[in-house]
Amino acid sequence: MFSGASLVKTSTGRVTNKAVFQYAFMNGGKTAGLNLQRGFQGWANVPMGPPDPIFGISETFKKDSFPKKINLGVGAYRDDTGKPYVLPSVRTAEAEILKQDLDKEYLPMTGDNSFCEEATRMAYGDVYDSISNRLVAAQSVSGTGALLLSSRFFSKFYPSKDIYISNPTWGNHKNVFSNAGLNIKEYRYYNPITKGLDIEGMLSDLSQAPNSSIVLLHACAHNPTGVDPTHAQWNDILRVVRDKGHFVLLDMAYQGFASGDFARDTYATQLFASNNVPMFLCQSFAKNMGLYGERVGCFSSLTASPEEAARFESQLKILVRASYSNPPVHGARIARFILKNNDLRAQWAGEVKGMASRIISMRQALRSILENDLKSKHGWKHITDQIGMFCYTGLTPEQVATLSRDYHIYLTKNGRISIAGINTSNVRYLAEAIHTVTSN
Ligand SMILES: Cc1ncc(COP(=O)(O)O)c(C=O)c1O
């Protein structure tokens, strides 16, 4: 960030502001008698913030030199050798795009329209054609960027400022929505006894929420629990949402990871859209295309009419312009190329199925070693019942701490493990460690 190891004097012998600034940072923020600028105290009251619960784990993991260390914190796919996986379809698309010798001009504020059309068509499935003339879509800075646009739109235009999120949910939901000034409320979701969905609690909490509240739902492969509603339960959720006039925000970061099939994972999206529930949808291509660092996502809003869509879009552009002006071009080109090329798209679907299958086989292996080989007295059925990238193990914060301290196995404090971090070489070591910490 601030390179250069020493203070720099100008020809007149005065220390420049830039150099003092560098010195202050190199000195851990203590200016040791030097000021950024005479009298400047602007950051004197900035407290040290806590590390991010997920990215913080990755940093600790990197520093650990133990050969059998395992990172089960971050939700990023790894192959069976524990390496990051660049999808072959992505490699092909990238090579083809490079051959085209394209320019690096700005995209429009709402991004690559053709990418957005393909992305939303994939998420809304059969319903797409009947809603496309009142659907507003914008390419976003991955899933988080789509959530950010939602949060800003709510904060500026939506009458209610209460957003209901599942307990538990992905940690960043609270950050994004509270940063935009929304009030975070929770609905019951996970039952720690059954390690499944607390559907009665959820329906009751959503019924008791004030009318027209915002309800954030995970479209598929719920993070962190790996527990999704059944189709019948989704229908019940729809009924409450309609009765109460709630606004639905669907977060779809894992399309394809729940069932291994893109179309099957669109049940919730299609259900709400076909019933004309006012909704936003936040899509990410980080996981299913492995485009984590390219930041490819799509925000879309189902409006009441083409005329309303035009007004909505005009305001969305204003929000984008003031936030980051327009989205990055490269990742969206890759995604568009794959989505628009039938052969490559079919290949990609196979690759996603492959990732989903490897995850399922790791769930089975972990459970089997715990139950059959190690004769663990605890029930581990939930490891294979839960779906998607994560398993909410039920490990306590103390057990999690022992795993990282004594076994160099890293996971979030809530006991969530990213199954994608497990492979045939480390699954036994992991099972043995879990067995030991849960036997004491
Ligand atoms: C539930 C959920 N929503 C959204 C995201 C956003 O991810 P990204 O911004 O990398 O697309 C994630 C990533 O872990 C997630 O788990």
Walk me through what this model shows.
With 440 residues, this protein is of the alpha/beta class. The chain folds into 3 domains: 1-33, no CATH class; 55-85 and 358-439, Aspartate Aminotransferase, domain 1 (Alpha-Beta Complex); 106-340, 3-Layer(aba) Sandwich (Aspartate Aminotransferase, domain 2), CATH 3.40.640. Helix content is 44%, strand content 13%. The chain contains 16 helices and 13 strands. The protein has a 7-stranded mixed β-sheet. It has a two-stranded parallel sheet with strand order 1-12. Strands 5-6 form a two-stranded antiparallel sheet. Helix 4 (113-124) packs across helix 12 (330-340) and helix 6 runs parallel beside helix 7 (171-179). It starts with 16 loop residues before the first helix and ends with a helix. 41% of the residues are buried. The chain binds pyridoxal-5'-phosphate. Pyridoxal-5'-phosphate binds at residues 75, 142-144, 170, 218, 223, 251, 253, 284, 286, 297. Residues 68-434 form the Aminotransferase class I/classII large domain. Its EC number is 2.6.1.1. Its cofactor is pyridoxal 5'-phosphate. One of its GO terms (molecular function) is pyridoxal phosphate binding.
